[in-house]
Amino acid sequence: MSGLLAFIVYFAAVLITAVGMIGISFFIGQRHQERSTGEAYESGICSVGTSLLRFKVNFYHVAILFVILDLESLFIFIWALTFREAGWTGFIVMLFYILVLLLVVVFFWREGIFKINKRRPLPLHG
Amino acid sequence: MLYLLLLIPLMPLLGFIILTFAGRRLPQSTAGMIGCGSVGLAMLSAFSLILGFFTRHPEGHDINQVYWTWLRAGGFSADFGLYLDPLSLLMVLVVTAIGFLIHIYSLGYMAEDEGFRRFFAYMNLFVFSMLVLVLADNLLLLYLGWEGVGLCSYLLIGFWYQDPANGRAARKAFIVTRVGDTGMAIGLFILFYQFGTLNIQSILHRAPNNWVMGSSIAFVVAVLLVMGAVGKSAQLPLQTWLPDAMAGPTPVSALIHAATMVTAGVYLIARTHPIFLLSPAAMHLVAVIGTITLLLAGFSALVQSDIKRVLAYSTISQIGYMFLALGVGAWSATMFHFMTHAFFKALLFLGAGAVIHALHHEQNLFRMGGLKEKLPVVYFTFLAGAASLSALPLISAGFYSKDQILWNVFSLPQGNYLLFAGAILGAFLTAIYTFRMVFLVFWGTARTEVSRLPGRTMTVPLVILAVFAIAVGLIELPRTMGNFSLFGNFMQSVFPKNAVEHGPISPELLVQLLSSVVILSGLYAAYELFVKNPQKLAALLSRPLIKQIHLFWFSGWGFDWLYNLLFIRPLLFFVRINKEDAVDKIYSGIADISCQLNRLLLRTQTGRIRWYVLASVAGAILFLALAVSL
Amino acid sequence: MNTSELFSLIPLMMVGGGILILIPVAAWKRNFQLAFAISTTTIIFDLAFIFIKGSCIKVDRASMLFKTDACALFFIGFFAFLALGVLLISYEYLKNFPGNKEEFLILILLGTLGGMVLAASNHFASFFLGLEILSVSLYGLIAYFGRQPHLEAGVKYLILASASSAFLLFGVALNYAQCGRLIFSGYGLPLIFVGLFFKLALVPFHLWTADVYEGAPAPVTAFIASISKGAVGVFLLRYIAQGSMNSQLVWITIAIVAIASMFVGNACALLQNNIKRILAYSSIAHIGYMMVIIYLFKNYGDVGGIRLSSIMFFYLIIYTLTNLGTFGIITAYSRWNQEMASLDDYRGLYWKQPVSAMFFTIFLFSLAGMPLTAGFVGKFLIFSAGIWSQCWWLLLILVVNSVVGLYYYLRIILTMSQEAEGRLVPLPVRLPVPLLISLGLMLSAILYLGIRPDSLLHWIQYFSQSLYSR
């Protein structure tokens, strides 16, 4: 049961800390609203327009593809570190791995993901 | 061999499934072929089984085949297993053979009915259930078949459901038999509780060792089983449903309410006879029930005006004979009478159906008449059935079987003179009402025009059944006439031997002579009253007392009225004062709590992800709290 | 890794191979019939391989990551079978969809692969990979048709499943911290339970179920209810059968969760008017019943464990089969842009389409546990296990809940038999053939197992032993 007590104390401590930090600054922090309160500080640049811009989804496609393939290539690095130990088996496995990646890239290529300028209807029908 | 056995109930089931699912798309002829063919194949399997039974098992070894285990838990195990011994083989043969003939007959009888496919589907389901009932090797399967035939009976009595009266009759049959089924179910529970197994044979083997002769537990179980039996077999006090069950199509009456299903009670008692042997009091009860029923039903049959109701009461009465025979321990005689009865009663019903069919659904005896010339085939076959039913000496199968019962009642130690006198009186009544029917329907002047003649599909089964109704008695001849005992030998492995078979021959002859005289005089009385001097009867009926009795018998001894007064009214009264049922409170309480819980819990379904995540996190914290606290 | 190890992984690799074939096919020339043929053939080959060559697989530990024992093989085959069912019911549904269809098949195969990996996993790495393959393909599948309810359900599932995966990963990390390896052990258990229970939709992690079931397209719901639930269930049992959780905590947690799930599931389903939601809640209750079996593991060692695991496996199998059938019926009447999930849509189905109404009735009977359906046998086995363990209070709760559960199943059946007041089921007059095949498979399986459960139980008992042969 002492474990439970400790848990409750811990949980309460977390709660108090979190609530306390927000609460204290809420109560004793100063509040003022003047002309330059919301402006960028020192060498910051004043923003122009709204941040809720509509970008083409194709940018996102390319970006996410980049991230994914980037991550996948990490495995190749790991293989490269153990190149000698992995031997021919490792080599064949890695060839297969790259082949799969290639297949995916071909798929996206055929889908026209890389043609950022091309206007194509989304496959989804809302 | 073993899979042949499985094939017997499987074929009708297959027929039922096909007809149910594809029935509407099949042409009528194909549907009829499936309906008849499935039962026909079952019959062929049964015939090949009996051949195998005689050749390979000359001493009549039983086959107990467990195909698979359905459920098993601890010591409890529910198997799907079939048990074949001479008793169930006989039942199977009768059910499939007569069932097949009646299916063929129905091809003609139901040809113009809209529900043709539905009819055959139900009939196949019935045959399946009946076969399961008689072949079951355990109580569970037996109960399945038992309830299955009850269900089919319900469906088929109410087959023409557009008429509310038929629906009422169907419900009545279902509810009345349910009263008996409840008792039987309790009996089966006790059996399972006492022996810890569902297997019928092992229960029956163990019963004599576990229970003392005449012990109260044996009595209680036997009486509970009798309750089920009297319900299904329409014996006193649960006989009231059968006359009303005639609302169904005539082939149904022939198959279910005469030849097969109503004898399920007889089968049940015969199957569990070791338990009854342990309780002489229960046996005596069965005998008394049988005797009283056969007399009451005989008197009622005398005065009915509807041809099918006459036959219904005669069925009750004949099953009364079987119960009487069971009660005195004449096991083999019971089954023999069951077999002959199945043939001639099916024949009579089908003959009556042919008449009804020909007269455009006229069922009133007094509007029939003079059909002798117009429907000769029906007449002669009906005559054969009537001879068998009234047990005309020597020339009918019914004589041999009924004689055996009479002789056994007379001679066996469990029988007594009172029972014997009742049985003799019943034979007299049987002769009168049977030939009253024959004379009214076929003799005299025509009162309704014949609108259509029965076709080949209807007459052929009639002829076959007529041959059997006359000749099937020859497989078991009494000692006074040849002493030929094929049937008795066939059955001997199932039932214990009776002691009297080596006594002097003269009393048996005496009993036969007595019964012959009684039956012939009954025949003469019918001739006198209904053909020669009908005015005498009319004069007799005009007397007020006789008229009252006539009415009383006509209404089946007022049992419906009595039950209405004794059970239905009080029940309705209690229902009315107990509208806000106290017991129901528990259930409605559960329902209320559930609804409240429902309302409460649906509040948690906000559709907001943050709330859902919060719940998950709360759960995780709970788990962690549990983890650290223990 | 030697050839025999490789050989034992063929059932998994075949599905992966099918996906690799499908991708270039979809990229080169879109042809739905071809893609469908490839995916079904893959599954059938996989099934055939397991059926024919399964007994040749001798290695117990295919690699560090997998353990392809009899149990895993059986469930790989079983999931292949379920995937076949899902593919068949979604054929017509997809055919009417104007957009790209091939990726749907790829995702189904991928999800199935995830389920298979889960069933065979013997290591937290493979477990997590399997789980994520399954979940990620589900995100895609749920939102596949891109309508507003699909997207909503997809996003909900995405966020909640990721959150639960985070908990699970933390549990795995604790396990690693304690053992220094990623083999299964009892450390970090509460957090691993959070992840698993979320996937199984147990209280209090059940809140997504109704919304996702309702929002997802019907074939995808079928997939979630059968393969996804089934795979996690199998994994849970295998994990527990490792026997490392002898602390009291596990059992109390499981008991609480089981009881809460039974009550919450049944109570919420009572007055619903949307069949998919009813089935979602009923699935919560059913998993609750399964947790009762898991709770009973508490008192028994290996011998009792074999028996209880076979009961649990049996229940899981029939439950997934039945669910697939039920959602198959719903799929039959749904279109990608219109789900027929309201109870009113099925009013009078008996009079218009008696055959499919009959199918539906039998599936619902099986869920409710009526005799002669497999559901009855499952319930019976649970009850018998409860009686055997003399766990009366849990049994009582189970009985009460089964009775309450009966209500909403019968309510659906009642609605189907009511006269339709001018309301018509507008769509197909006859059901498409692939769907009928799938429904027929499920129906015959349920009825067969309802009449001859021993045939399957025999197998299950056999491979349950392999769970305990350490």
Task: Report on the architecture of this protein.
The complex is a heterotrimer of chains A (126), B (630) and C (470). Chain A has a domain at 55-118: Methane Monooxygenase Hydroxylase, Chain G, domain 1, CATH 1.20.58.1610. Chain A is 64% helix and 0% strand. Chain A has 3 helices and no strands. The longest helix of chain A is centred in the last third of the chain and has 29 residues, at 83-111. With 630 residues, chain B is mostly helical. Chain B has helices at residues 2-22, 28-56, 86-109, 116-135, 139-157, 164-195, 200-210, 216-233, 241-244, 250-259, 264-271, 273-277, 280-303, 307-327, 331-358, 371-374, 376-389, 397-411, 417-442, 456-471, 486-491, 506-532, 534-542, 544-554, 559-577, 584-602, 609-629, and strands spanning 63-73, 76-84. In chain B, α13 (280-303) packs across α24. The longest helix of chain B is centred in the N-terminal third of the chain and has 32 residues, at 164-195. Chain C has one domain (3-468). In chain C, α4 (70-95) runs antiparallel to α18. Chain C is globular and about 60 Å long. Chain C starts with a helix and ends with a helix. The B-C interface holds B 21, 68-74, 76, 80, 590-591, 594-595, 597-598, 601-602, 604-605, 607, 609, 611-613, 615-616, 618-620, 622-624, 626-627, 630 and C 155-156, 159-160, 163-164, 167, 189-191, 193-194, 197-198, 203-205, 207-208, 210-211, 247-249, 252-253, 263-264, 266-268, 270-271, 355, 358, 377, 380-381, 384, 387-388, 400, 403-404, 407, 451-455.
Write the layout of secondary structure elements.
The complex is a heterotrimer of chains A (126), B (630) and C (470).
Chain A: H1 2-28, H2 57-81, H3 83-111
Helix pairs in contact in A: 2-3
Chain B: H1 2-22, H2 28-56, E1 63-73, E2 76-84, H3 86-109, H4 116-135, H5 139-157, H6 164-195, H7 200-210, H8 216-233, H9 241-244, H10 250-259, H11 264-271, H12 273-277, H13 280-303, H14 307-327, H15 331-358, H16 371-374, H17 376-389, H18 397-411, H19 417-442, H20 456-471, H21 486-491, H22 506-532, H23 534-542, H24 544-554, H25 559-577, H26 584-602, H27 609-629
Antiparallel strand pairs in B: 1-2
Helix pairs in contact in B: 1-2, 1-4, 2-3, 2-4, 3-4, 3-10, 3-15, 3-20, 4-5, 5-6, 5-10, 6-8, 8-11, 8-13, 10-14, 10-15, 13-14, 13-19, 13-24, 14-15, 14-18, 14-19, 15-17, 15-18, 15-20, 17-19, 17-20, 18-22, 19-22, 22-23
Chain C: H1 3-8, H2 10-28, H3 32-53, H4 70-95, H5 102-120, H6 124-142, H7 148-179, H8 189-200, H9 207-215, H10 218-241, H11 248-269, H12 275-296, H13 302-333, H14 349-352, H15 354-368, H16 374-389, H17 392-417, H18 433-451, H19 453-468
Helix pairs in contact in C: 2-3, 2-5, 3-4, 3-5, 4-5, 4-10, 4-13, 4-18, 5-6, 5-10, 6-7, 6-10, 7-8, 7-9, 9-12, 10-12, 10-13, 11-12, 11-17, 12-13, 12-16, 12-17, 13-15, 13-16, 13-18, 13-19, 15-17, 16-17, 16-18, 18-19
